[in-house]
Amino acid sequence: MTLKTVGIHHITAFVGDAQQNVDFYAGILGLRLVKRTINFDAPEVYHLYFGDEIGHPGTIITFFPWPMGHKGRVGGGQVGVTTYAVPPCSMDFWEQRLRAYEIPAEKHRRFDEVYLTFTDYDDLRLELVERAEGPQSTWSTAGVPIDKAIKGFGGAVLYSAAPTSTAQALAHTLGLQRVSEEHGLIRFSSAGDIGNIIDLKADPVGYGAGGSGTVHHIAWRAKDDEEQLQWREHVQSHGFQPTPVQDRQYFNAVYFREAGGILFEIATDPPGFAVDEAVAALGEKLMLPAWYEPHRRQIESNLAPFVVRDPEVRRR
């Protein structure tokens, strides 16, 4: 069986303040906070998930907010830029919206597409691109109408310390197709209609340092648990050292680091974020896996409260 991922499942990053993080992604970008939980490996830290109405794979960006953490440095071994897809004819809306919130943004062209680039409050690098492919979001909030709403990931720009090796992993391990190259970037695509375009810097990039404002890992989609086990075998057969399957409550995960330093994950599409709360109530309260429930009081006491709100618009 030939395995090919259909694209990005989720991207996970480090940030500082949780309220600031929610203000930006829910308040300004208009994504839905679909889950507030904890880092299962460090329960004193939130794990916040943002996406479309139910957090479909390919729409999910997740964060570890750590106010006491240090500032990171973007570089090799990381996702350098996270790309979001928006509907055609919506770029003017987003340019005006970012300007209203005093978020500096610039336009540039890459592979015959126009991108609007900016950073969040923690200097995480983001960009918007108009794409017709992929389903329209059904989530509308914070002044973002449905016909302008972010659909999910357009893709990502990868910074590798060993791009030749990373290109091999993308093409021969993950099954992405190498489709074009220009201006120092190599473009890959998958069969999916969202989260499917990956641009890789062709020249080596000096290693970055993890911390606030950097991406921790990028996850690729597996359709179910059975396929994930096939992926684990497949990854191992290509010379990588995958972890055992990790239960992440809303998906199962297998991790491995490719030779360019980027941490990859293979994540299952199911069971999704409605496994422990109703769709209408997603993200409203702190959800813990069963093994942490006996410690709920202590865990909650270590987490700063936050609210989903519309941040103040400073119009010039």
Automatic annotation (TrEMBL):
This is Ring-cleaving dioxygenase. CDD domains: PcpA_C_like. InterPro entries: Extradiol_RC_dioxygenase, Glyas_Bleomycin-R_OHBP_Dase, Glyas_Fos-R_dOase_dom, VOC_core. Residues 7-131, 152-269 form the VOC domain. The keyword Cell membrane does not apply. One of its GO terms (molecular function) is dioxygenase activity. Keywords: Dioxygenase, Oxidoreductase.
